[in-house]
Amino acid sequence: MSKQFDVIAIGGGPGGYIAAIRAAQLGFSVACVDEWKNSKGGPALGGTCTNVGCIPSKALLQSSENYDQAGHQFAEHGIELKGISLNIPKMIGRKDAVVKQNNDGIAYLLKKNKVTFFHGRGSFVAAKDGTYVIRVTGASEEAISGKHIILATGSNARALPGTPFDEVNILSNEGALCLSSVPGRLGLIGSGVIGLEMGSVWHRLGADVTILEGLPVFLGAVDQQVAKEGHKAFIKQGLKIELGVKVGEIKLGTKGVSVAYVDGKGLPQTLEVDKLIVSIGRVANTRGLEPETVGLKLYDRGAIVVDDECRTNLPNVWAVGDVVRGPMLAHKAEEEGVAVAERIAGQHGHVNFNTIPWVIYTHPEIAWVGQTEEQLKAQGRACKAGTFPFMANGRARALGDTTGMVKMLADAATDEILGVHIIGPYASELIAECVVAMEFRASSEDIARICHAHPTLSEATKEAALAVDKRTLNF
Predict the structure, then answer these.
(1) What is the rounded CA–CA span in Å between residue 138 and residue 124?
(2) How far is CA 97 from the centre of its chain?
(3) How many C-beta atoms lie closer than 10 Å to residue 473's C-beta?
(4) How far apart are CA 235 and CA 239, in angstroms?
(5) How many folded domains does the chain comprise?
(6) DSSP 265-307
């Protein structure tokens, strides 16, 4: 007899482990299946986010920013340092330690909430009498069964056609986080979140970085006023960014990687680099699930077909996170995981895609929620815009970090906030206030009337709200 559970979550990343914990809180018997391994072959809970994504990238971003500030910014504060050296193995070791802390923390949370963990790959075996049999293939093989299955198997980096990742010279996000030394010349294909963050890390540490982007505009998904500000900041830092390129043949040689491309002016070019990071998006990971065994429907590219409430075509089989439609963001996966667990319990779990925040953890940081000015204009929706620069914010001046601004968009008739876009210091933290405001359908006037502590960066948000009505007080 296989072990029986009410709910089985396949995948131990943000969507899966959070769904498992919430289901357990609601009184269900729950199992979580995950195949990630650490360097010793043991479990490494947390999925791509914890192991080769959100967490390790932020650890390296912090380390590289500290190094950059020590070498370039500390002097203006009266802190004079000489003979600064770089220990890449120690930096990578710190990153690995941060990852392990998160791995161990998730394992503790599952145990605390009485979720049974199975280390291995989960795949469908059969559906019978209202339950699904799942095979767990790890160090050994065993079968478990559950009434409800939550699929949270995440995504994988998308490779260029004909150019697979070797994680030595041609790198995905995984290889980009594990370099043992700073490459002299680093190329990146794709100027999205991963490309900019990894480019920033290795540029701060000394690499000559060139980014090739296929789109004719920089950060096409970002409000273009903010994107242009970001482009100027990154160019000033020394990142080389080419837009509107068409990448051709990529060759591996004894001295590195050669990338043939046509630039934005239509001229043939060649980029010679020591390492190449490819960050052109991600694809849903359904490898090994054996969906055909039970008739689970997938799209052509492998993503699982779900409705608005994350139900698949099979009764009591759900899917969340990167493996379904919507933005591939860890916090989106978490919210869907909670919502599904609550729907299984007969509650009304809810995820509002319009108030999911986005963040790029570069310097300056870029964060936004809601719609861009370009999107609103395309819809024919009249809006008012208010902006406030950090150069006029007292806390930003004290920090010595005044690049960027806050931009708020509100409906021209009702004043409801439709989008907020921030580029500048701690934008990732400042955006939370705007998410709350939009979730409660606040107006720009509501933010403008709220007392913000002085001196804080959040005052820039208030001033942007005041600017919607053309009555800023400090600019």
Answers:
(1) 15
(2) 20
(3) 11
(4) 5
(5) 3
(6) TS-EEEEEESEEEE-S-EEE--TT--GGGTT--B-TTSPBP--
b/e for 367-389, b at 16 or more Cβ within 10 A? Answer: bbbbbbbbbbeeeeeebbbbbbb
- 176 and 261, same domain (yes or no): yes
Among this protein's residues, is 331 annotated catalytic?
no
Q: What CATH number does residue 222 fall under?
A: 3.50.50.60
Instruction: Please check whether residues 288 and 362 belong to one and the same domain.
Output: no
Length of the chain measured in residues:
475
Shared domain for 208 and 241, answered yes or no, is yes
- Residue of 119, 350, 421, 454 marked active site: 454
- Please tell me whether residues 100 and 120 are part of one structural domain: yes
Phi-psi region of 326 (alpha: psi -120 to 50; beta: other; left: phi over 0): left
What confidence tens digit (pLDDT) does each residue in 333-363 have? 999 999 999 999 999 999 999 999 999 999 9
Domain range for 49? 3-157+283-351
* HEC assignment per residue over 355-389: HCCEEECCCCEEEEEECCHHHHHHHCCCEEEEEEE
The arithmetic mean of pLDDT across residues 254-263, rounded, is 96
Strands 240-242 and 208-212: parallel
pTM: 0.96
Residue type at position 426: Y
